[in-house]
Amino acid sequence: MQLGLVGLGKMGFNMRERLREGGHEVIGFDPRPEVTDVPTLDALAEALEAPRIVWVMVPSGEITRTTIVSLSEVLSPGDLVIDGGNSRYTEDGPHAKLLDEKGIGFIDAGVSGGIWGLAEGYGLMVGGSDENIERAMPIFDTLRPPGPKEDGFVHAGEVGAGHFTKMVHNGVEYALMTAYAEGYEMLSAEPLVKSPQQVYQAWTNGTVVRSWLQQLLAKALKEDPKLAEISGYTDDSGEGRWTVEEAIRLKVPVPSIAASLFARFLSRQDDSPTMKAVAALRNQFGGHAVKRISESG
């Protein structure tokens, strides 16, 4: 299958490689000449055979909006745009309407997997019409992890449902990372425990708290047992905030997610072992930048 891919950053680049390994023809566009396949979006549209499918994998917000507006001007009726970035779900309706006025379809796709997705596959949460989802299914099947389709892929509902689901996913992720990190701080504080890393390593098999995030923390501690090279300063991508805001709107209590979000705010004021561990986890699973001690003072 042929696909246009806009945005060849950490995830987009690996997605292009995974799709090509799966037998698809992927033509990518990125402003950086060292990674792009074509020089402009116009050239991308010309290189694709109609009806086209174009996957947008750029930062959320204004960059996504301007990219979709630009695509609406170079694509044709019958084409399909997939927004695979971390857009807020409330932006999907306007994007879909803009494209629909040009006869172009729209899918919102929440994507999880970070820098490990190339080898392990990506968890996919998509929103859109049955017809559009079915049309893009060969792409989704190649990107998702191997195994039963329902384990790693969900058609969550209409337009907006994919990004709403990914938003909640990331809110849960915030809470899980903070719980693991708080456990690390407790283990580090007790002199009876000789190696918190060995504890987390042991928890990777046979325990009820084992998970991929927990395994990644064990890996991070093995690489830097005291997390001495990492500042506890931890950014938030926005989706944790959105989750809390939507929980307030829906009158749903999310105390753990809210507390983990506020813990990230706290990390910018007081360095702590807990937030060092969260920063290390974000670097392990997503390749997110960490502030080194030499940078932060």
Automatic annotation (TrEMBL):
Alphabetized SUPFAM superfamilies for the sequence: 6-phosphogluconate dehydrogenase C-terminal domain-like, NAD(P)-binding Rossmann-fold domains
Tell me a Gene Ontology molecular-function term this record carries.
phosphogluconate dehydrogenase (decarboxylating) activity
| Residue span, 6-phosphogluconate dehydrogenase C-terminal domain | 162-296
Its GO biological process terms?
D-gluconate metabolic process; pentose-phosphate shunt
List the keywords (alphabetical).
Gluconate utilization, Oxidoreductase
Q: Which domain of life is it from?
A: Bacteria
Q: Which family does it belong to?
A: Belongs to the 6-phosphogluconate dehydrogenase family.
Could you tell me which NCBIfam families the record lists for this protein? gnd_rel, PRK09599.1
- What this protein is called in its record is 6-phosphogluconate dehydrogenase
Q: Which organism is it from?
A: Mycolicibacterium sediminis
